[in-house]
């Protein structure tokens, strides 16, 4: 299977409020058959062919300024991002007890009655709240998962309570502790993301602060994924093959596993490790580095017997930031991609097009057709 045979997902078909399909996966998981909207084309249902076993990137020496450790980390990141856009980090600074607390607390959200969860569901055009199978956005090839998402900037004067306030406003004061745990987790993910940006800059031969400045005040998205068991795991996905449209993604998967990446013309399982975070390069960073690094093609498979959880932190620049590569990466050539703002790509991927394997290629013709804003 070559990358050219990977099929881009169809454009999304938004639903209005009256036609929204409300799929309760905790009920459907008991059925021998699943609705046709969850069935995926055979071309995408390619089996796993191996295990991803590349060396882990140890951040401890890099953070402490150790030159030998930094050189090693740069070498590993450069090789991984050039090849497939995915690497894993250890000694990242996120406490194991905090990570487990996040999983434990989010169970209290996903275990709520379905009607209660629908009361704070994600609105069409939005990105926060609860979603079941993204049915408010898509009409075919639905993912077998529930998600709960929220935005996080981390630089506002009231940022120390923003996540807590979100949980209590959406779910009530009984969820204040859930909010406090997620507040701490978001703070740690923001800190880790900026460290990763410094490492990426150095790996590209740039000043270590070059990319960091674009992301210090960006609004990132924290998402929790819940994948119920599925009796038909061979014909559907928890998340289908795609690239993330954002800049980088920090992902932690629980002990069940299910994350896979596409490299060397085959799908490889990423074994779960509780002390590891996976880092995906996304489309926006691919443009930021003039295509030097690849946007990671990945998917999530399902388990027939066990529920699976994952924690995902999507890192974004500020909305009005113009995405263009530094001159050092376009010497003797033209930029691979036209300039664009993150706001415009987010609008396209969130409201007008289903993020897949060719999001940037589909985005630019749409962008060029939009009315020009006077300057």
Task: Give an account of the 3D structure.
The protein has one domain: Jelly Rolls (Sandwich). Helix 3 crosses helix 7 and helix 10 packs across helix 11. The protein is globular. The chain is 31% helix and 18% strand. The chain has an 8-stranded mixed sheet. The chain is α+β, with helices and mostly antiparallel strands. The chain contains 11 helices and 15 strands.
Quick recap:
The chain is α+β, with helices and mostly antiparallel strands and 375 residues long.
Give a quick set of tags describing it.
five-stranded mixed beta sheet, globular, alpha+beta, metal-binding, 11 helices, Fe2OG dioxygenase domain-containing protein, Oxoglu/Fe-dep_dioxygenase_dom, Jelly Rolls, 375 residues
Q: If you compute it from the alpha carbons, what radius of gyration comes out, rounded to the nearest whole angstrom?
A: 20 Å
Kindly report how far apart the N and C termini lie. Answer: 47 Å
Specify the helix fraction band: 25-40%
Strand order of the largest sheet: 2-3-11-8-13-6-5-4
Overall CATH class: Mainly Beta
Residue windows where pLDDT falls under 50 for at least 5 positions? 1-20
The assigned structural class equals alpha+beta
| Outline | globular
Residue-averaged pLDDT, rounded?
A: 90
């Amino acid at each position: 299977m070559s990358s050219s045979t990977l099929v881009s997902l169809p454009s999304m078909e938004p639903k209005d409020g009256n036609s929204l399909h409300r799929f309760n996966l905790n009920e459907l998981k008991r059925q021998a058959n699943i609705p046709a909207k969850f069935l995926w084309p055979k071309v995408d249902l390619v089996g796993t062919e191996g295990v991803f076993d590349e060396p882990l990137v140890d951040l401890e020496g890099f953070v402490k300024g150790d030159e030998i450790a930094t050189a090693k980390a740069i070498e590993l990141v450069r090789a991984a991002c050039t090849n497939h856009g995915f690497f894993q980090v250890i000694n990242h600074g996120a406490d194991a007890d905090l990570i487990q607390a996040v999983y434990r607390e989010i169970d209290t959200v996903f275990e709520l009655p379905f009607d209660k969860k629908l009361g704070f569901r994600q609105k069409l055009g939005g990105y926060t709240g609860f979603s079941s199978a993204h049915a408010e956005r898509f009409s075919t090839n639905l993912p077998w998962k529930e998600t709960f998402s929220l935005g996080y900037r981390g630089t506002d004067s009231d940022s120390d309570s923003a996540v807590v306030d979100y949980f209590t406003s959406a779910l009530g004061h009984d969820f204040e502790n859930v909010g406090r745990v997620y507040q701490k987790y978001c703070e740690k993910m923001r800190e880790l993301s900026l460290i990763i940006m410094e490492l990426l800059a150095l790996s590209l031969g740039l000043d270590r602060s070059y990319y960091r400045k674009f992301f210090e005040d960006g609004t990132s998205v924290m998402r929790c994924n819940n994948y119920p068991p599925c009796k038909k795991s061979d014909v559907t996905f928890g998340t289908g093959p795609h690239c993330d449209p954002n800049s980088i993604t920090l992902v932690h998967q629980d002990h069940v596993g299910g994350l896979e990446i596409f490299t060397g013309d085959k799908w490889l399982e990423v074994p779960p490790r509780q002390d590891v975070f996976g880092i995906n390069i996304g489309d926006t960073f691919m443009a930021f580095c003039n295509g030097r690094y690849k946007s990671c093609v990945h998917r999530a498979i399902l388990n027939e017997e066990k529920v699976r959880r994952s924690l995902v932190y999507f890192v974004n620049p500020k909305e009005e930031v113009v995405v263009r590569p530094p001159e050092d990466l376009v010497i003797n050539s033209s930029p691979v991609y036209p300039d664009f703002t993150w706001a415009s790509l987010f609008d396209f991927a969130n409201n007008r097009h289903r993020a897949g394997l060719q999001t940037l290629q589909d985005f630019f013709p749409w962008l060029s057709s939009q009315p020009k804003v006077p300057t």
